[in-house]
Amino acid sequence: MENKRTQKGGSDPLSIMETLGDFTSKENWDNFFSLRGTGDSFEWYADWPELKQPLLSHLFVPSDSDSSLDPIEILVPGCGSSRLSEFIYDAGFHHITNVDFSKVVISDMLRRYVRSRPEMKWRIMDITNLQFSDEVFDIVLDKGGLDALMEPEVGTTLGSKYLKEVKRVLKNGGKFICLTLAESHVLGLLFPEFRFGWEMTIQAIPNKPSSKSNFETFMVVMVKGKSTAPTSVKSLFDDSLLSFSTKQVNSVVNAIEKENSIRNYYSSGEDILFSLKDLQLGAKGELKELIPGQRFQLILGEEGSSLYCYKAVLLDAKMQSESFTYHCAIFIVPKIRAHEWLFSSEEGQWIIVENSKAARLIMVFLDSRHVHASMKVIQTDLSPLVVHLAPEKIEDDSPIPYMMAGDGVKQRIIVQKAASKITGPVIVEDVVYESPDEDNNSSSSTEGLMYRRLVFERSAGLVQSEAFLVREDKADQDKKDSPSVSKKKGKKKNNLRRASVEPKSAFSIDHTRLASSYHTGILSGFSLIASSLEAAVEAGEKVKVVIVGLGAGLLPMFLHECLPFLQIEVIELDPVVVDLAKKHFGFIEDQRMKVHVGDGVKYVFESAQRQNNISKDVSSGESNIKETRILVIDADSSDLSSGLTCPHPNFVEEVFLKSAKEFLSQGGLFITNLVSRSAHMREHVISCMKEVFDHLYSLQLEEEVNEILYACTDKTKIETENVRKLDKLMKFPAKGIEATITTHIQRLK
């Protein structure tokens, strides 16, 4: 195998490749060393006279170090037959361990140095699987070992395994000194592997004057540190090297510039998107360690290792506790909900963490790439990826649980899907929940209560409207037994057959009960002006209720049936929603209830202007009909990224609130349904309302995201007597109002 280019004492590195063939083959190396014979020495590159000064400058421990008096432990992996260890030994560093997987060369080197340099150790060992404990060496000195493992056709597998071992056996503060030709595929592995938590310098080792080699040898020094923050690669090139400007040198300079731009990005302080590889290399420290309040974004999966890629956020609970249900959990966010404030904002994500009862939560966001994949496929694809992110467990090795943003529906029947230019896709569905309310017995089915729901796909996590369904035969009997129920309620054209439970029983909407707790909350606010309502009824005066936002029409229908003295006007922007309310939810119009298709903001502005004109006419001597007014805002926002789901931001701006106050006049009541998980947004809304109204109240619904805000134009009291007055005015009771008004409504101003 030997030829003219492989003479003793040195050679052009590229000629060795032709002689050896496969550098990763133990048999090839054994043959190579056998052919060269005993007592031979072979240097890949960088002769000692040129290497001595720059190398020895890195082998000293600082004098102020606690370990400065201890001998420096040096590991030389892939030592071969080089005299490098001999020269270092003679320079005063005796604690050198040399390893190579060739038995031939280790036996020869041991015989050669056993007497002259007895403290040097020689071990037969695979450098990709070092048989040493963790953190035992101060220096790992590689001369061509990494290059040998990094043949382009072999790939990076062996090189990665070797560098992992190097990092493992090095002490903190230790140095990995790598003598290399610094080819692009080698630096392509070396730079990212030592990007986080290592200081790196690179310099050129000059060739000896007589050398005819066109290749430069580079010394890359990596110092193992405690900080995970990446630092720039320092190049120690002198002007003579740069002026030489070979293709090899230019390639190295360009690689350093590219790497430093990457490191600057990671050091920028922006919300960095890490890869799983970055994290495994120490970008955020030790992944197995829980760090309270830690949060970062990452990409899971890559081509060849998984079916899909996933954007994810890792969050460690701010307060670590032994009471966590899960040590680590995965929370999957469907594409349709990913834009919602609860999932897209940092503040919302911490709410999810708190509710998940997990010490570490990994939120995974699905997108258009995943629309055709089943949840089983997604979980199977994710499982081998997320296992690398799990913290160390004290308990058993049970699988990491998966959670998903859902609605707890046990049974679902789609009644109709509609498309609106204003609202987008709209769904009418009948559902049975997994945990039905056993206290309600409107249905004889053992499967639990059935509800009809109106859902906007743009905010799938929020049910717009929800109604109780009752069997029509029971509804007919209730109408006979209770004259308080409007006769018009019996006209139902679109009844559901509950095929999976009672195939022959038709169901209809029950307008005598409120299924949504926030509707009950809105009605509870009427008690704040119960005295005014009572006086208006006794005097035969008008009581006008304007509701902005129809939804399924369930609240106006309940008010229509329960409080027959009300004149109700509903403003709804979307005609498709009006049609669905009439078709599937029993909404009707008559002399006491009208619906207007239009802009609620514009309606209130124009109504306030008319109110001002009427006030001027009164001052001119014209008559005026006194009227108590209630304004209810229940219109959601199409932009969920702001953190305000309901109402639309236009309804809480100061200019609108002032118009609303003018519209109500004396004795009026303003009610808005507030849905926001952002504390900042909530405070903003309340602040705006305090600027306009003198009397402000709040009802935070238990186990709901809804908060009902009430603003009165006149001073009022929160007392049981007002509840009783309202109860007398109602044709049938509404469950929970008294407890709500006396216990849960709080005065804000």
From TrEMBL:
Entry keyword Transferase: yes
GO molecular function terms attached to this record: S-adenosylmethionine-dependent methyltransferase activity
InterPro entries the record matches: Lys/N-term_MeTrsfase_sf (IPR051419), Methyltransf_11 (IPR013216), SAM-dependent_MTases_sf (IPR029063)
Gene Ontology biological process: methylation
Superkingdom of origin organism: Eukaryota
Biased composition (Basic residues): 486-496
Entry keyword set: Methyltransferase, Multifunctional enzyme, Transferase
Region (Disordered): 474-503
Pfam family, one: Methyltransf_11
Domain Methyltransferase type: 77-178
Protein family per UniProt: Belongs to the methyltransferase superfamily.
Protein's UniProt name: Methyltransferase-like protein 13
Species the sequence originates in: Rhynchospora pubera
